[in-house]
Specification:
It is built from five helices and five strands. The protein is α/β, with parallel strands linked by helices. Helix 4 runs parallel beside helix 5.
Length: 147
């Protein structure tokens, strides 16, 4: 039996990168809180460490703006899906190390459950579980439902 079956979750976090796996995670997160009247929290983390490798220092501001815009698009997709089901959604775009920001967000917002895709856009070799998901599983002290 899936540990999420029958459980009531009030605050569910969906870290998103806009990938298909994140979209499937969004669907499940919305279903998990729909009946309880809970809230979905959509989080996109801009990994500025990676941005430093692809942008020269003078372009960092522009890169940041571009990543913020992309992140806002991804969290708004989660919000749109939640709204269709009558579920409240909080959207947040942050910068930092993705797994650290996810765990920090869980603590700061009293999150009951993290629902995330098993691998995202940055896992091109298609491992069973992506690197960010694997690190969140190891760091989180709340349940993590991997889709």
């Amino acid at each position: 039996m899936d540990e999420t079956e029958g459980a009531v979750y009030e605050r569910v976090l969906v870290p998103t990168d806009g990938s298909r796996a994140a979209k499937r995670a969004t669907e499940q997160a919305v279903e998990l809180v729909k009946d309880s009247g809970g809230t979905v929290h959509a989080l996109y983390v801009m990994d500025m460490g990676d941005a430093g490798f692809v942008a020269i220092p003078s372009d960092i501001k522009e890169t940041r703006k571009r990543l913020e815009k992309k992140g806002q698009k991804f969290v708004n997709e989660v919000k749109k899906r939640a709204s269709k089901s009558g579920v409240d959604c909080v959207t947040v775009v942050k910068s930092g190390i993705p797994e650290d920001e996810v765990v920090e967000y869980v603590h700061e917002n009293d999150i009951d459950l993290v629902v995330m895709g098993r691998r995202g856009r940055s896992d091109p070799d298609k491992p069973l579980i992506g690197s960010t998901t694997k690190r969140v599983l190891g760091l989180s002290d709340v349940p993590v439902h991997v889709v």
